[in-house]
Write a structure and sequence with these properties.
single chain, alpha+beta, Jelly Rolls, 13 helices, 8 strands, 18% strand, globular, AraC family transcriptional regulator, sequence-specific DNA binding
């Protein structure tokens, strides 16, 4: 059983707009209960702002508190799920890469720190003043989305761009700027992360990725070290471990099959690698996580 990857056209929406969706969060949950009841990933970029409610949001095995003022950002491929203690309110929108990037020639979605590296935190905690300001912008997008006015898509894109700008200012104000990936290295790091996501099953050594980026392995390691204080090998291992955890928890495949899927030479080597990186054997991790689910 594979982790479901949800697409924009699967969600129920009041008016169709290619590659874009927005809804109040409570309405979104009510309309799409069947799609959202299990952990899943998306093939689009997502942004959600909460004005009320409490609970937890799990993103790739990290749990975050949901409360008023929280904003979450997800990139394609990230696995997540919701658990609410009190009824959530707010807004959610998502869109394809092309919906945004084809409208703006001078910058792309990766210009925003919450989207240009998986190493940057996927959430933001707004002050009351910031929340009120952003809430009005989300309401404006939603209102425009429900109507069929002239140049509707262009106006929506422009407001979404303003939202991202305001969120970036709040994001960089609340986090030590040195914790963010340096813009000087963001392009190389983004390309590296994309290459790892595509090739980590079969390519597990830095040399392959350096060759793909047309730079030396030494320079690639320098870029990664200066940008996020890690090594290229660490990034590759982290991606393998993340996929291992996803398959162990969100699928019913036996552990030997998971080892084969990840293209390890044998299960013993996979088990040793997983324990070295996590402190758990694959079996103990699956059992431990199941207890808390």
């Amino acid at each position: 059983m594979k982790i479901p990857v949800l697409k924009i056209n699967q969600f129920k929406e009041p008016e169709t707009l290619n590659d874009f969706y927005i809804n109040s969060f409570s309405n979104h949950i009510d309309l799409n209960k069947k799609l959202l009841k299990k952990p899943h990933s998306h093939n689009f970029y997502l942004c959600v702002i909460f004005t009320q409610g409490s609970g937890t949001h799990e993103i790739d095995f990290n749990s975050y508190q949901v409360n008023s003022g929280k904003v979450f950002f997800l990139k394609p491929g990230q696995t997540h799920s919701w658990k609410f203690e009190t009824k959530p309110e707010g807004f959610i929108f998502f869109h394809s890469l092309e919906f945004y990037n084809l409208k703006f020639l001078d910058h792309t979605l990766q210009s925003f720190p919450f989207f240009y590296s998986n190493q940057n935190p996927p959430l933001l905690d707004l002050s009351k003043k910031e929340l009120n300001k952003l809430k009005m912008l989300f309401e404006e997008v939603y209102k425009e989305y429900l109507q069929k006015n002239l140049l509707r898509e262009l106006k929506i894109t422009n407001i979404v761009n303003n939202i991202y700008i305001e969120l970036t200012r709040a994001y960089t104000a609340n986090i030590d700027i040195e914790e963010l990936v340096s813009t000087n290295y963001s392009v190389i790091l983004e390309n590296l992360e994309n290459l790892i996501n595509t090739n980590f099953y079969r390519e597990k050594f830095p040399k392959f990725y350096a060759n793909q980026l047309n730079i030396t392995t030494k320079h690639l390691n320098r870029v990664v070290k200066n940008a996020i204080n890690k090594t290229t090998s660490q990034l590759i291992s982290e991606r393998i471990i993340l996929e291992s955890k996803r398959l162990m928890i969100h699928s019913e495949n036996n552990l030997a099959d998971i080892s084969d899927t990840l293209q390890f030479t044998n299960y013993a080597y996979f088990s040793k690698f997983f324990k070295l990186k996590t402190g758990f054997t694959p079996l103990s991790f699956r059992k431990k996580y199941a207890i808390f689910k």
